[in-house]
Design goal:
Layout (H helix, E strand, L loop, with lengths): L1 H23 L8 E5 L3 H8 L7 H10 L2 H4 L5 E2 L6 H4 L25 E4 L2 E9 L5 E7 L21 E5 L7 E8 L4 E11 L5 E10 L11 H7 L20 H6 L7 H25 L1
Parallel strand pairs: 3-9
Antiparallel strand pairs: 1-4, 2-9, 4-7, 5-6, 5-8, 8-9
Bound molecules: copper (II) ion (CU).
Length: 288
């Protein structure tokens, strides 16, 4: 009997910790990143300023969807994609990842801020607010792609311009890697698919490019701009729990990827799980 008394207090403390864990976690969404070269649609409009968009398409985006999609430039994701990109995103919804919040990004317009590019070597740059282990694949639309029609999966050249294995660290907040742009003319889209391998979550983005043209080069957000807007973002601008948990909790994280767990709380959660297990063992011993 004394052994039960000794375990009762730690178990109670662990249960309290678990309760506070549940109360604290569901608020903040995850943060990931965005393609800055060639700059993606959401990043280009964020760079112009959510409150002061300059290009007509970005003005129209804010009029349609408000400023929040721009403040959340680092979010465009599907939590449970699990590699099934074409199953979870229908044709015409590729740029929004089939998220209503980002529906304006699907607009098939030719006035999205674009980056002038040429065939050959290209240095991709992806600004990540949370680095993840996974694979980032950069696709380019086929020659003959019509930018006035909604982007379809079949528009993408099956040979990617780059495939990059992402790690849980990013130098100065960027993944930078080289790829090869194919020979194209006119306006095209670079489509990114970033699938995590430590979670079913995946991220998507559209960047507008013009081959051989003299189009103005779209601007990516500056670090100052990113910092200035972070307070109005509904997604975390720091690394989030998915990568930082002890292995014992990784399965729970994958099952609920929208709940970032700070490291300390994750520790408390592990303690709670251990405590609950101890309680069960104690009860079994008591019954036997
Ligand atoms: Cu993330």
């Amino acid at each position: 009997m004394p052994s039960i008394r000794r375990t009762a207090a730690p178990v109670a403390a662990a249960t309290l910790a678990a309760a506070s864990l549940i109360a604290l976690t569901p608020t903040a969404a995850q943060a990931h990143g965005a393609v800055f070269n060639p700059v993606s649609r959401v990043a280009a409009c964020y760079a112009e300023g959510p409150e002061t968009p300059k290009s007509q398409v970005c003005k129209d985006l804010v009029a349609d969807s408000g400023t929040q999609p721009l403040y959340d430039w680092n979010e465009v994701n599907i939590a449970n994609a699990n590699g099934q990109h074409q199953a979870v995103i229908p044709d015409g919804k590729l740029c929004s990842a089939n998220r209503d919040k980002y529906r304006a990004l699907d607009w098939a317009r030719t006035d999205w801020p674009a980056t002038a590019v040429n065939a050959g070597a290209f240095g991709f740059r992806i600004r990540v607010t949370a680095a993840h282990s996974g694979t980032m694949t950069m696709y380019v639309t086929k020659q003959g792609f019509d930018p006035t029609k909604p982007l379809k999966w079949s528009d993408l050249d099956s040979t990617p311009a780059a495939v990059y294995n992402t790690t849980r660290t990013a130098t100065d907040g960027f993944y930078a890697f080289n790829g090869t742009l194919p020979a194209r003319t006119g306006r095209h889209i670079v489509y990114m698919v970033w699938q995590r391998n430590d979670s079913p979550e995946a991220f998507y983005s559209c960047s507008d490019v013009t081959f051989g043209g003299a189009a103005k080069t779209a601007q990516a957000p500056t670090e100052a701009k990113i910092a200035a807007g972070a307070a109005l973002s509904t997604v975390s601008h720091a690394g989030h729990g998915g990568d930082e948990q002890p292995p014992a909790l990784s399965a729970e994280t994958a099952a609920q990827p929208a709940s970032p767990l700070p490291l300390a709380l994750a520790g408390a959660g592990a303690l709670a799980v251990f405590g609950a297990g101890s309680l069960l063992l104690t009860r079994r011993r008591g019954q036997n």
